Prior knowledge:
Layout: H1 4-18, E1 28-38, E2 53-68, E3 74-87, E4 92-102, E5 112-124, H2 129-135, E6 141-152, E7 159-168, E8 179-190
Antiparallel strand pairs: 1-2, 1-8, 2-3, 3-4, 4-5, 5-6, 6-7, 7-8
Amino acid sequence: MLHSRGRAVLFALVYLLSVGPTKADSGWYYIGFLGVMTENRWHETLTPGQLKLADSNLAGLGLGWDRQIGTSRFSYGFELQTVGHFGRQDHFEVNLPLILRYTPDHPVPKQLQSLAIGLGLSHATKIPRVELDRKGASQRNLVYWMAEIEFALREVESNLYFRLHHRSDGYGFYDVSSGSTGLVVGWRTSF
């Protein structure tokens, strides 16, 4: 029998495969994602042997817009995300990052759609428990940044992405020294 996380991942994959075609020229898109929080600093999440999960999950929806920069392979835009946390945390989060995206001309592997980074603001409805546990202090408003790799799905026009979802004090931008990192898998569909 599948555990709750397994059922959630299975549901997400089935949904991803059923999403309809995109209209890539519009610039507007919507996203959905599921993830797990870690007890690591962001760069430690890239080393599997150091990864420590925090028994806290997140799910989110968002609306985004992007525009190509001239004839280059780069585009810029923004996302408005609403995120629900469950497990050890039980709050909501709103993030508004500005995003710079690179779309390779001849990607390797062929399914690679884009690479993106984003930076903006994050507001939590409660001080996040994972941040308190890690650093002893935090606050509701912090810097939000994300790093993403996106892949085209073969049978549908939606894209699958993997993302680092990070709240941070911004290297001293906020007085409190705190932050948290989530590992996220999601889908993006243009409309």
